[in-house]
């Protein structure tokens, strides 16, 4: 997995590139359907899989509806993410899929490093789910260590 950050006046962008040993038509449903996404991010669900449709984040006492901003089967799915945006871009390379996660958060987003850490975990989890049949176990991931590394790297 390759991770890059870009700090600008409008916020911070995280680009995460993950390679998965499967075709884009095999990978895309894991990013674009409720059944697929809940296997690796159980708090998310989809309503109307199209631009203008809705992704719902539902965790304990928090429910937030986010707008789908990009949707092209087997190529791209993106949505608002609180005050920011998340977009998955897929490219098929020799029968495998390269997923590029593009996440942009404004500077006022309260927990940038923790959010970036979560998406990095999810990108690894998607790969394991598609290739091996089960997502990563959150209990075995050192969120604090990765979050601290991101904070140090980004001067947060």
Automatic annotation (TrEMBL):
SUPFAM superfamilies to which the protein is assigned, alphabetical: Bet v1-like
Signal peptide positions on this chain: none
Domain Activator of Hsp90 ATPase homologue 1/2-like C-terminal stretches: 21-131
Family to which the UniProt record says this protein belongs: Belongs to the AHA1 family.
Entry protein name: SRPBCC domain-containing protein
Organism name: Staphylococcus hsinchuensis
């Amino acid at each position: 997995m390759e991770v890059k950050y870009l700090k600008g006046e409008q916020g911070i962008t995280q680009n995460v590139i993950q390679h998965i040993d499967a075709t884009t038509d095999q990978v895309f449903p894991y990013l674009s359907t409720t059944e697929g996404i809940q296997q690796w991010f159980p708090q998310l669900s989809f309503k109307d899989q199209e631009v203008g449709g809705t992704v719902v984040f539902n965790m304990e006492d928090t429910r937030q509806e986010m707008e789908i901003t990009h949707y092209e089967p087997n190529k791209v799915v993106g949505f608002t993410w609180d005050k920011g945006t998340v977009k998955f871009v897929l490219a098929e390379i020799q029968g495998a899929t390269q997923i590029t996660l593009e996440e942009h958060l404004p500077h006022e987003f309260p927990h940038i490093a923790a959010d970036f850490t979560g998406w990095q975990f999810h990108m690894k989890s998607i790969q394991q789910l598609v290739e091996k049949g089960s997502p990563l176990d959150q209990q075995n991931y050192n969120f604090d260590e990765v979050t601290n590394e991101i904070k140090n790297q980004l001067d947060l």
